[in-house]
Amino acid sequence: MTDMSDDDQQQTTGTSRRGFLRTAGLAAGGAVVGAATASAQEADPLITEIQDWASATGEGVDAAPYGMPIRFETDTVRRTVPWLTADPISSINFTPIHSLDGTITPQGCAFERHHSGAIELSKSDYRLMITGLVDRPLVFTYDDLMRFPRENHVYFCECAANSGMEWAGAQLNGAQFTHGMIHNMEYTGIPLRVLLEEAGVQPEGQWIFVEGADASSNGRSIPLEKAMDDVLVAFAANGEALRKEHGYPIRLVVPGWEGNMWVKWIRRIGVTHSAVEAREETSKYTDLMPDGRARKWTWEMDAKSIITSPSPQMPISHGAGPLVITGLAWSGRGAIDRVDVSLDGGVNWQTARLGTQGGKYALSRFYLEIDWDGSPMLLQSRAIDDTGYVQPTKDQLREIRGLNSVYHNNGIQTWAVYENGAVENVEVSS
Amino acid sequence: MSKSVLKALATTALVGVLAAPATAQVHNLGRAALPAEIAAWDIAIEPDGTGLPEGSGDAYDGEDLWVENCASCHGDFGEGAGAFPVIAGGEGTLTNRRPVKTVGSYWPYLSTVWDYVHRSMPFGNAQILSADETYAITAYILYSNGLVDDDFVLSRDNFLEVEMPNADGFYIDDRVESEVPLFSAEPCMSDCGEPVQITARATDLQSTPEGVVTVFAPDRQPAVEASADAPASDGDSDGDGDSAMADEPVQEAAVEPAMPTLDPELVAAGEGLWRQCRSCHTVDQGGRNGTGPNLYGIVGHAAGASEGFRYSNPMQAAASEGLVWTPEELDAFLADPRGYMRGTRMSFRGLRDEADRAAMIAYLTSVTGQ
After folding, report:
1. In terms of pTM, does the model score above 0.90?
2. Which fold has domain B264-368?
3. A260 with A367, same domain?
4. Which of A188, B59, B113, B269 could link A236 by a cystine bridge, Cβ 3.0 to 4.6 Å?
5. Is B199 close to A429, i.e. CB distance below 8 A?
6. What average pLDDT score do residues A96-119 get?
7. Is there a domain that residue A143 lies in?
8. Which range of residues forms the domain containing residue A345?
9. Within this chain, do residues A143 and A265 fall inside the same structural domain, yes or no?
10. Is B251 near chain A, with CB under 8 Å?
């Protein structure tokens, strides 16, 4: 992949010839489908021989003042689909959800969506302005913002176009590509309500219009009710400063609502009487329906789930026997209550175990441990949130929305699993 | 604190007192935004025309501005280039399998056009257009959509008189009424229907990036063997970003002639100037062709030779006559692209300053390697 760093390409450096051969042999063994692993014929040299790492010393402290994943983890990288967009500066890439576990997305592999590229804006150059229908139009520096009370919350951020390429049928092979426009982080920020109260919203102010400092500005209108409820002006994610590609030094966090509204590098909050109807909320991020009209202001991300492993990028390499089926579930209308998994394309279901039950607007992680008999499966998962909403099938959505709505595809995904452990993105009759 | 800031603070405080339900500042952090600052950043245009500045422009002037600033991505008539958005046409296509969503066919408000052109375009060089220029380009967009005549003059005064064909084409999200009840029943857990069949397979489309899937279904070909007899995609199964699938990366590295040692300052200056070019061109080895060709190895290389790029007719003709992009030829081209080569698709106006051209050529030479 194009994302490989120099480190990845130097993978064999520093590995002894013996060690390298042994690793290669193991990898080949792992590919033998159905190989029994319960009993060994010969003693494992990894155990019986003294390994380099058990004899010599490893790296000292400070070898990497800010560490990167160990060089073996080359698969856990963002990837893009070049044909999707005209230009990588206004484009999207995908979180490697297939190879992650738990629920928190590391910033370094959390998907990116830019409309005019990821800009570099320092804290000292940062300004936030509140204007419009307020008693006191205000300007804040970054340091000013650090003096307001702050909160921590875990929220998912999902692009409205996540799974958008799958409307007309199974298209991309990989959970990363079908469902990877999502990440889930612990944000630290100031409630937007606090800043708006500081400026004093006037009674005729019913909306806010938020803009970024980049050339696209990506302006979006948000009703005041949401702005005063749970929106955060965030400066940190997972305990550290936001990454450049996620809006350093400040971005908006709009829990449960489509990612496009989470304006990065936010520079102005204008309080207005009505929606501004900017480009990103008219020409884009509106959902074309079969009658040629379009839904607008489709903000909430409906409940959705995806099996991240097995999946096309995560085939079953161990043959029949114990198998862990795992995935993610979320809802923009609340918290996840339950996830069901089907092995036969939706005819029979069993309830999975929630390893992490996420809070409101956060990812949950589910597991279903089965004893796989090695026969083909059609894996599906469906999320049920605490409002009682049950994730629909793609066909149920198509019946209402047709094929042209692009955004908000939260239909049930099917993975075909074959005897050899290969997994493919398919559609099934229903 | 400066005098003007104090004055603004006093004014703001006074306004605060006059507005009836004024709440007190709780934290007393931040400072009053000055009128000049608000004017610089509060540039949003609302559907009722709020925010529009004085000014006007006609479709004639708009066409010239369009060709210079917009056509390289959106086509001479708004028909789109590469995979960049189509701006004109598409009327009556919103119920088609492949709707064409343009200003004329889809956008509900003209204010959106003015706002976006003024604040975010041209791509890679935003916020250069004056109010009059923005009115003119907006007028040309209306003209190219067949909504006004070619002598149409758009101004703040007649802005709201323009009727947008799809103004009534939107309604507020109704999922809570139209969908949520349908999807809120207790779900079936067993024997929920007939056994299902596979009806479509992603592998057949071969649109997944290569190399990420390594184990394939027993009876299916790996997608990486996509060259010769690849089954054709049905063309109906992709999403928002269709039509860009033809962009193949250029694989071959050009062989470079020896170049003189480069002045690092000149290269750095050229890199700065490159920002104007990168929305259309890539310069890295194997980079993709965009609206313009990949330029890796361009200095000293034959013209019109980036594989897979559709050059203009005059560029193809020059290439077949053996044009080589020596620094001298590049300098002449960059000084006045359309003067140098009539009919070139590159709508960039050129670099008038000789030093800028030297910097650009130095940069292009440097990224190519020696």
Report:
1. no
2. Cytochrome Bc1 Complex; Chain D, domain 2 (1.10.760)
3. no
4. A188
5. yes
6. 97
7. yes
8. 304-426
9. yes
10. no
Amino acid at B274: W
Determine whether the interchain pair A173/B240 forms a contact, defined as Cβ–Cβ distance below 8 Å. no
**Cβ separation of B239 and A428 shorter than 8 Å?**
no
Chain A residues close to B31, C-beta within 8 Å? 138-139
Q: Distance from A302 to chain B by nearest Cα, in Å? A: 9
Which of B27, B241, B278 shows the shortest C-beta gap to A148?
Answer: B27
Domain limit, last residue, from A295, A324, A354: A295
Strands A127-132 and A266-272: parallel
> How many CA atoms are closer than 13 Å to the CA of B246, on its beta-carbon side?
11
User: A-chain residues within 8 Å CB-CB of B188?
Assistant: 349
Q: Are strands A304-309 and A321-330 parallel, antiparallel or unpaired?
A: antiparallel
Sequence ranges of the domains in chain B? 3-41, 56-161, 264-368
Q: What total number of domains does chain A contain? A: 2
Listed by number, the residues of chain B in 146-165 with a beta carbon closer than 8 Å to a beta carbon of chain A are: none
CB A105 within 8 A of CB A185: yes
Contact of B9 with chain A, judged by CB distance below 8 Å, is answered with no
B230 vs A116: which has the higher pLDDT:
A116
Taking an 8 Å cut-off on Cβ atoms, the answer to whether A277 and B97 are in contact is no
Distance from CA of A65 to the nearest CA of B (A): 29
Q: Would you tell me which residues 294-333 of chain B have a C-beta closer than 8 angstroms to some C-beta of chain A?
A: none
In a domain, A61, yes or no: no
Same domain, A280 and A188: yes
Q: Is the residue at A352 inside a domain?
A: yes
A389: which DSSP letter? -
Which pLDDT belongs to residue B316? 83
Q: The domain spanning residue A407 has which CATH number?
A: 2.60.40.650
Closest residue to B107, CB basis, from A282, A292, A387: A282
Contact A1 B212 (CB under 8 A): yes
Residue scoring higher pLDDT (B150 or B18): B150
Q: Answer for the pair A245, A118: CB distance below 8 angstroms, yes or no.
A: yes
A394 shares its domain with A253: no
Same domain? A311 vs A361? yes
Residue A42, in any domain of the structure: no
pLDDT at position B245 over 90: no
* Domain B56-161: CATH architecture, name and number where available: Orthogonal Bundle (1.10)
| Chain A residues inside the 8 Å CB shell of B22 | 135, 200
Judgement on whether residues A208 and A103 belong to the same structural domain of the protein: yes
Contact across the interface for A428 and B15, Cβ inside 8 Å: no
How many angstroms separate the CA atoms of B122 and A119, rounded?
17
Neighbours of B267 (CB within 10 A): 19
The half-sphere exposure of B212 on its side-chain side, counting CA atoms within 13 A, is 31
Q: How far is B302 from chain A (nearest CA, A)?
A: 25
In total, chain B counts a number of residues equal to 370
- The interface pTM score, or ipTM, of the predicted complex is 0.89
A308 and A416 in a single domain? The answer is yes
Which of B12, B113, B196 would best serve as a mutation to test chain A binding (most A beta carbons within 10 A)?
Answer: B196
Domains B56-161 and B264-368 share a fold: yes
Residues 176..215 of B with a Cβ closer than 8 Å to A: which?
Answer: 178-180, 182-185, 187-203, 205, 207-209, 211-215
- Report the chain B residue with the minimal C-alpha distance to residue A178: B208
Long-range Cβ pairs for the range A110-114 (8 Å, 24+): A110/A78, A110/A183, A110/A185, A110/A243, A110/A246, A111/A78, A111/A159, A111/A180, A111/A181, A111/A182, A111/A183, A112/A78, A112/A245, A112/A246, A113/A159, A113/A181, A113/A259, A113/A260, A114/A89, A114/A90, A114/A214, A114/A216, A114/A245
Q: Which amino acid is at A45?
A: P
Give tens-digit pLDDT for B200-211: 999 888 889 888
Residues A327 and A291 in one domain: no
Chains A, B: CB pairs < 8 Å:
351
